[in-house]
């Protein structure tokens, strides 16, 4: 079945592709999904297109005797562009590191990166192109919940691995999704840590939620709601804003009017920055946000006003070179791009790349997509310089770790064990 049969079904954040849609949509898919704005310009991330894998008889599998081609659709333009750029940077650093050591079983790792602007329709069309035209071996490092919701069913239908998406969405943790390998903890785990710290460390009971009006924001809202419910509480206000905008004024005013003691924000750095600025005109609650925010960009945008903003993370502090995997990341990053600034998102990208390398190594020279997926699941625990990713037949998420950080007066992130309230 061709990917075009599924394209319309995934657009609009629909995680389920009904069989009748796949059949009846054959003649209508292009018409139904066409029109609208122009797609963002494709971005190859500086990676030349490799020779076709047809030379080795693997024309539909994305590899040959001398290379393996991975594909990425992420935001490289628009308000969330720093997330896509950082994720790509980390993956490329990991691939460069492996290639400098001779590749994996003699195969060079390559990445074809396309810009989706953090929009679902472009993510779907990019995924279709990567699978059908670029003939990638696997997809890696997708950025965002709504875009992953659009792309993942296409990968599933084509039997293409969907590796390390930059999202903690629950739907990607479904044990039935045998083509998905997550690295990071989920948004439910991040919001549980937030609520636990707010209630246990500070005795806070009045919590408001700002969330992006899409599947990402709704997932974070639900995680927060469930965490509060377990403690006999509920959000005192919940307000949303449109994706890829800074149109948060109405939402911020609604939150401020509820006079919360804390505000949990499920969004990317631009709208989160604007919300903090607006709410602080009325009151000074504890601000907390999830890892997807783009920590480096958030701190840079907030400047001195960032002091005291808490962010849950799913990777260790990227500045702590006492951690072996972080030290290795620093080395790989400086070798690939000496001017690059270490950060949480590119560290996550690096771990995504290292997971791909580990899977390829486990498969040996006789490579296949199924082997990559089963090698990771069957291995159980994959160790990356002391960092353990644990998988299993019914577990496609490697790490459950959530780290609490705060932006200090120095503009840098610091690990904390307990909340201390507003600065």
Report on this model:
The structure is a single chain. The chain contains 14 helices and 14 strands. With 423 residues, the chain is of the alpha/beta class. It folds into two domains: 249 residues, Rossmann fold (3-Layer(aba) Sandwich), CATH 3.40.50.2300; 140 residues, Response regulator (Rossmann fold), CATH 3.40.50. The strands form three sheets. It has a seven-stranded mixed β-sheet, with helices on both faces. A five-stranded parallel β-sheet has the order 2-1-3-4-5, sandwiched between helices. A two-stranded antiparallel sheet has the order 11-12. α4 packs across α12, α5 packs parallel to α6 and α7 packs across α8. The termini are far apart.
Secondary structure layout:
Elements: H1 4-10, H2 19-24, H3 29-33, E1 67-74, H4 81-100, E2 108-115, H5 120-132, E3 138-140, H6 145-158, E4 162-163, E5 180-181, H7 187-202, E6 207-212, H8 215-229, E7 237-241, H9 249-257, E8 262-266, H10 269-279, E9 286-289, H11 295-302, E10 310-313, H12 324-336, H13 344-363, H14 369-379, E11 381-384, E12 387-390, E13 403-407, E14 413-415
Parallel strand pairs: 1-2, 1-3, 3-4, 4-5, 6-7, 6-8, 8-9, 9-10
Antiparallel strand pairs: 10-13, 11-12, 13-14
Helix pairs in contact: 1-6, 4-12, 4-13, 5-6, 7-8, 9-10, 10-11, 13-14
Could you name the ranges where pLDDT drops below 50 across 5 or more consecutive residues? 1-39, 45-58
Provide mean pLDDT, rounded: 88
> Could you give the count of β-strands?
14
Query: Which CATH architecture of the largest domain?
Result: 3-Layer(aba) Sandwich
Which features characterize this protein?
disordered N terminus; seven-stranded mixed β-sheet; single chain; 423 residues; Rossmann fold; 2 domains; 14 helices; 15% strand
């Amino acid at each position: 079945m061709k990917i075009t049969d599924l394209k319309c079904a995934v657009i609009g954040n629909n995680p389920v592709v009904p069989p009748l849609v796949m059949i009846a949509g054959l003649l209508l898919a292009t018409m139904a999904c066409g029109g609208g704005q122009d797609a963002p310009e494709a971005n190859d991330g500086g990676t030349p297109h490799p020779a076709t894998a047809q030379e080795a008889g693997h024309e539909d599998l994305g590899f040959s005797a001398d290379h393996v081609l991975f594909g990425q659709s992420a935001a490289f333009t628009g308000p969330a562009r720093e997330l896509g750029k950082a994720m790509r940077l980390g993956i490329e650093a990991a691939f460069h590191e492996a290639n400098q050591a001779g590749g994996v079983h003699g195969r060079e790792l390559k990445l074809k990166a396309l810009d989706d602007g953090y929009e679902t329709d472009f993510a779907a069309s990019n995924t279709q192109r990567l699978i059908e035209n670029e003939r990638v071996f696997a997809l890696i490092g997708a950025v965002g919940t709504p875009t992953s919701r659009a792309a993942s069913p296409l990968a599933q239908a084509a039997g293409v691995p969907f590796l390390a998406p930059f999202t903690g969405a629950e739907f990607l943790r479904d044990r039935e999704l045998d083509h998905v390998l997550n690295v990071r903890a989920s948004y439910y785990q991040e919001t549980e840590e937030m609520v636990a710290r707010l209630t246990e460390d500070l005795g806070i009971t009045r919590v408001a939620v700002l969330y992006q009006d899409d599947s990402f924001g709704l997932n974070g809202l639900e995680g927060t709601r469930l965490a509060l419910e377990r403690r006999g509480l509920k959000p005192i206000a919940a307000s949303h804003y449109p994706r890829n905008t800074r149109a948060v004024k109405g939402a911020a005013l609604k939150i401020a009017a509820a006079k919360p003691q804390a505000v949990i924000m499920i969004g990317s750095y631009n709208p989160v920055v604007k919300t903090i600025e607006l709410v602080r005109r009325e009151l000074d609650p504890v601000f907390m946000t999830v890892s997807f925010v783009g920590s480096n960009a958030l701190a840079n945008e907030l400047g001195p006003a960032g002091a005291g903003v808490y962010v849950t993370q799913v990777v260790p502090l990227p500045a702590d070179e006492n951690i072996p995997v972080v030290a290795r990341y620093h080395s790989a990053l400086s070798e690939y791009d000496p001017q690059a600034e270490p950060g949480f998102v590119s560290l996550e990208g690096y771990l995504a790349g290292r997971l791909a390398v580990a899977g390829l190594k486990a498969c040996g020279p006789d490579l296949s997509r199924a082997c990559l997926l089963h090698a990771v699941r069957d291995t159980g625990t994959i160790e990356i310089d002391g960092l353990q990713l644990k998988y299993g037949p019914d577990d496609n998420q490697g790490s459950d770790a959530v780290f609490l950080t705060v932006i200090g007066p120095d503009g840098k992130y610091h690990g904390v064990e307990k909340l201390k309230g507003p600065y």
